[in-house]
Design the sequence.
């Protein structure tokens, strides 16, 4: 029986795609981690959905609005478009259990390390978690992916992503292996980072 589900790559945003800026919400403060757009493009070429999953508690804290988050994501897409790359979908969680804005004060299933955003993406993109990957700079990015049976990669690098050409495949275990290599090679891993390992 064929499995119509597909592998996907889940990427954290702040500190993974763009440089960490506390409560980033303005385009003028946005700066890519060098090589990140090219890494996204490479993942696009592998033919797997590239899905961003990001906590944005700045909304619950009253620092910015959901509209600002969406504008920033539109800007990222515009930037990526310049090199023919794309993020297939952005998922963000504006909630926090004990912050100022009542409307967003909630113990949300979507806030990482809870798996809500991943579960939603898995449904919407018919994702097979066992053939999928999550890359983030924090343990809390990786936990939900691990819980769902994905392969997890700690942040690929502290300062940049480096993408190397790899042979492409489009299905089955070969695809999984290629994707893993792409993710692994998408960064000069830190000494303390072990890409592709499962958390215990
Ligand atoms: Mg992060």
Sequence:
């Amino acid at each position: 029986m064929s499995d119509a589900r597909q592998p996907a790559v889940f990427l954290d945003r702040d500190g993974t795609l763009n440089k960490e800026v506390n409560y980033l919400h303005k385009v003028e403060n946005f700066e890519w981690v060098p090589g990140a757009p090219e890494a996204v493009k490479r993942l696009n070429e592998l033919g797997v959905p590239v899905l961003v999953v990001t906590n944005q508690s700045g909304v619950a804290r009253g620092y910015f609005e959901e509209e600002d988050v969406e504008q920033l994501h539109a800007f990222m897409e515009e930037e990526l478009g310049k090199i023919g790359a794309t993020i297939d979908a952005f998922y963000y969680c504006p909630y926090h259990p004990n912050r100022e804005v009542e409307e967003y004060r909630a113990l949300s299933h979507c806030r990482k390390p809870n798996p809500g955003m991943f579960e939603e993406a898995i449904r919407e993109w018919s994702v097979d978690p066992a053939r999928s990957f999550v890359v983030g700079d924090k343990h809390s990015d990786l936990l939900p992916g691990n819980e769902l049976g994905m392969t997890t990669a700690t942040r690929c690098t502290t300062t940049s992503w480096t993408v190397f050409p790899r042979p492409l495949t489009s299905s089955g275990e070969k695809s999984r292996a290629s994707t893993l290599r792409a993710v692994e090679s998408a960064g000069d891993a830190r000494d303390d980072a072990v890409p592709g390992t499962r958390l215990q």
